[in-house]
Write a structure and sequence with these properties.
44 residues, mainly alpha, flat, 0% strand
């Protein structure tokens, strides 16, 4: 059997009123990502 990869694209219109909230969320995600990278680097 052949396996087919399916890719879906989600398009959203981001309003200016959401910009501050999204910036805060992006910073928090970045901090968690950096923490995980540093922790895994130290574990190696």
């Amino acid at each position: 059997m052949y396996s087919m990869d399916c890719t879906k694209t989600l398009r959203l219109r981001i309003k200016d009123k959401h910009a501050c909230v999204l910036a805060v969320m992006a910073r928090q995600v970045n901090q968690v990502f950096n923490f995980c990278n540093e922790t895994s680097f130290c574990a190696i």
